[in-house]
Design brief:
Length: about 190
C-alpha cells in the first residue's frame, strides 16, 4: 500500500509541476514575447534530466565457452572476466531459471540464474546471476549489488542472497534510501 501511495504522490507532484510550469511560461510569453518564453522553457526543464556527470558504464556481451560448440552469454558492466579454457572444458550448459525474490502489487524484484553441469562430478554449478526489476517504477529506484548464488545438489535447490539499495525519489530527487536483502532458496526444477 505504501508503494501505491508513493506512486500517486509522485504522479500528483509531476502533474502539479507541469501545471505551474505551463502557467509560468504563459506569463513569460505574455510579458516578454515568444522567443524569451521558448528560452525560459528550455532552461526551466533542463534541470529535470539526470546529471550529465553520471554516465552509465557501457555493457558488453561476454561469453563463457564450455566446449567448442557451447557457450553461455551474458552482459557485463565494466568488469573483465578471464577464465582459462582448460578449466571450463568439462562443463556443459545445463540451463537457467528465473524466479521472483520480492513482489508487491506494483513491482517485483527477480533473479535469473544460469548454471552449468560438471561432467566429471555430475554436479550443477551457478555460472551467472542477473537481478531484474519489473513493474511500475514511479518514484522507486532499485540498484542491486552482485548476487550470491549457490546450488545445493543434494536438495535440488538454488540458494541466493541479493542485496541492493532501494531509493525513494520525488521529482527525481532522492528522498530516502534503504538497504534491502533478499535471502532464500527455490527448487531447481519446477
Amino acid at each position: 500500500m505504501l508503494y501505491i501511495l508513493w506512486g500517486l504522490l509522485n504522479l500528483s507532484a509531476v502533474i502539479g509541476f507541469l501545471i505551474i510550469s505551463f502557467y509560468a511560461i504563459k506569463q513569460v510569453r505574455v510579458r516578454y514575447g515568444l522567443f524569451v518564453a521558448f528560452l525560459f522553457l528550455c532552461f526551466f526543464f533542463s534541470f529535470t534530466n539526470k546529471s550529465a556527470d553520471i554516465k552509465p558504464s557501457p555493457k558488453r556481451m561476454l561469453s563463457l565457452d564450455f566446449k567448442e560448440s557451447a557457450a553461455i552469454q551474458f552482459e557485463d558492466d565494466g568488469l573483465k572476466w578471464f577464465i582459462d579454457k582448460s578449466l571450463t572444458s568439462h562443463y556443459t550448459p545445463a540451463g537457467s531459471k528465473r524466479f521472483v525474490v520480492y513482489k508487491t502489487s506494483l513491482f517485483s524484484v527477480g533473479l535469473r540464474v544460469t548454471y552449468a553441469k560438471d561432467e566429471k562430478s555430475n554436479l550443477l554449478f551457478p555460472v551467472f546471476a542477473d537481478p531484474t526489476f519489473e513493474g511500475f517504477r514511479s518514484g522507486i529506484d532499485w540498484k542491486p549489488n552482485r548476487p550470491t548464488v549457490n546450488i545445493d545438489n543434494k536438495k535440488g535447490t538454488i540458494e541466493y542472497q541479493l542485496d541492493g539499495t532501494m531509493k525513494w525519489n520525488l521529482l527525481n530527487m532522492s528522498i530516502y534510501s534503504e538497504l534491502k536483502t533478499f535471502k532464500g532458496s527455490v527448487p531447481l526444477s519446477e
